[in-house]
Amino acid sequence: MSVITTAGTPGVNRFTRSQLLRTARLFATDPDLAHLVDLGAPERQWHRLDATDHLEIWLLGWPARTTTGWHDHGESEGAFLTVRGALTETTWSRGELHDRELGAGEGRSFGARHVHEVSNLGSLPALSVHVYSPALTRMTRYAVVGDRLEATGVERAWADW
């Protein structure tokens, strides 16, 4: 498996976006995933499945009508795949909101500094696998202010999570 560095040259510290989505698909096949989080919990839950400096994999449990809020993943590229239920990813482009619904088995990858909000708008719990490269070190939070997104703060890995 080849990987690229942040400068785009062959190396060992960043997976490609297609590799990230394939990794999410692979981990999503584990039949025991639903037992790692409480799908009946009132708030989102997450469980770290694996991590190195170059790759981090999370399982998220989504109660009905929960959301991440607007955020990015700093310098990490990522991918996520809906395992159960449906998730809606909302992105912001040129002052407009764009929604994409991802049902079970559907996923997407994204580049560094990709700003989005992911939500379970349904009435049943959802489950998803998220993969990041390199491992997450920070997330910037945003708020919609008029016709733009405005940064409201930065969360640092393990200090704030």
Automatic annotation (TrEMBL):
Q: Which GO terms describe its molecular function?
A: iron ion binding; oxidoreductase activity, acting on single donors with incorporation of molecular oxygen, incorporation of two atoms of oxygen
- For this UniProt record, give its keywords in alphabetical order, as a comma-separated list: Dioxygenase, Iron, Metal-binding, Oxidoreductase
Question: What InterPro entries does the annotation carry?
Answer: CDO_1, RmlC-like_jellyroll, RmlC_Cupin_sf
Keyword Iron among UniProt keywords: yes
> Which parts of the sequence bind Fe cation?
71, 73, 116
Q: Which family does it belong to?
A: Belongs to the cysteine dioxygenase family.
Protein name in UniProt? Cysteine dioxygenase type I
| Annotated organism of origin | Pedococcus cremeus
